[in-house]
Amino acid sequence: MSTDSVAAALQEHAALVELVSQEMVGQIDELAQVVLDTLRGGGKLLFCGNGGSAADAQHLAAEYMIRFNRSREALPAIALTTDTSVLTASASDLGFDHVYERQVQALARPGDLVVIHSTSGEPESLIRAAGAAHRAGARTAALLAKGGGALREKVDLALVVPTDSTARAQEMHITIGHIVCELVDRSFTKAEG
Hints:
This protein is an alpha/beta fold.
């Protein structure tokens, strides 16, 4: 193994963290405010994504429902990536492009927030999820990269990480997600105390 490759990957990650800290702090704060407004208003969070982004979506849903860093009330968050019966029935009967759209149609209501994770911003399954959310009266936010793709224009709030690397984008998406969780935790812990 090459220690140079390891060091280069870490340096690439660190450089992206620095760039995001310079360019995206306001957007991250805005996302945190939208999440807080959703939860304080009685809405729920619905997360979706494909591949590694699906794992990020369910990871963050668990942070809200169970806990992040502090003990606080359970917060309503659902990962649309985890029900194998729903996913496979939809993919088989309707086609994969509809796997999230159908769930959003069934679950999203006005006051909810659909959070979409995608490094490319191009999957039809996620574009359709955003459309279904809007038709349901729910807000939408997306964590994106590679310029944001088509999803950039289809959501209410697009956070586009400035990288073309899928791996670095996913690392930043989970970092941003954790920062938002921390801000929500602080707010809900203060409210309880």
